[in-house]
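Human:
Class, as today's exercise, you are to examine the entry below, and be ready to discuss the fold:
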Amino acid sequence: MPKSIYSADQHHNLRVGATKVNIALRRIIDCENVQPLFYVPSIAVIAERGLANWPIETEVISGRLPEDRHKVMPLSEAIRQLSIEERRLFLNNVGNRSFLDYREFRIVARRSDYYDDFFNGATVYPYGLWFVRIIDASSPDFVVVETNRARVEERGHVSVNIGPLPVEREFIYGILTSAEVVPFCHLQPNPAVLPITPSNSGYRIIQRPEAQARGKAHLARYLEEVEEGWRKSKSSQRMTIYDRLDYDNDLSKQNPNLRYKVVYLKSSSNLAATVVVDEPYLVKVGDSEVKINGVIIGHTLYIFQTNDVDEAHYLTAVFNSNILNDLITPMQTKGAYGPRHIVKKPLEFPIPQYDPNNPIHRRLSELGREAKEVVCRELNRVLQKLGYSSVVDGYYNYMYGSSSSGERLGH
């Protein structure tokens, strides 16, 4: 079986013995470290009906077999080239999740106070409908945009080509994805056309008929192209492009009035988190400047929103710690390229609410802020050294430019 039965959520019942046929794991032969073998980490499972008695005995096999003979060589010969270690495998429970590991986890079974406050970012998909290059900003009322082909092809998204078309400046936003995030820092978000308007504590989606009724003729024309592109590429016949854009309200509940967004990677081998300041910023296009109206967090990230900058830096210090990263690793499913699927696993651990009266919390916040400054300046230096001058110019202005509130290093 795939070694994903150690941690994948869909195998929970098998691990805890809650299957209808009452299968109990008795012994496992772990072949993950045998190369070459299969394309995913693999194990052999010995089970029988009844109740499991944890921990169970496990044989961990490791070694390298000859590339040209590993599929046909006799077992007796293969064994001589492998090492076998006897270990014990524990069933662990953290929050509502179970996982198997060679260590026994003794952690208070309490989810973080932040568990319900983090949510998945917006499904701005397909990228080709929304991600754009601004190619002309000479008009004070609109900019001319076209599909950002490099971004779309890089991510393997549906081939859609929109533009060049004018769009009113008020609908130009930045979208942050996992590709721009490193621990404590991020690159400049991707310019995008988004049919949204701030509304109370979130955003409201503007569909094409409303855009026409409000006299937003350029946006309405752009949305014609978007709807046609969605019609050609969509996989769901029941969902409109506007439903997809605000799937599960993950766009409309991003609150522009909460200035600091703490984001972390949804799927990766390792955790990485940073603070994003959601406010308008300027980018240079030729001899003109374009105001990006704010930052929208994309679906490859999880997001928490606050107006407390100290709380934001406290959370990034916790999320970027080796301790939390090590704790979630055995809970992640493993594929051909290692652990993945972080989702809400970090929040299964009892990360407490930020308390400004707690000296440990305050010190963590200070360390998070200091790490932000160090990492961002080093990233800037590396980009300069590698010759990405155009990226660095915009990035530097975004990270360290002037701000009415003086809190630019929160980016």
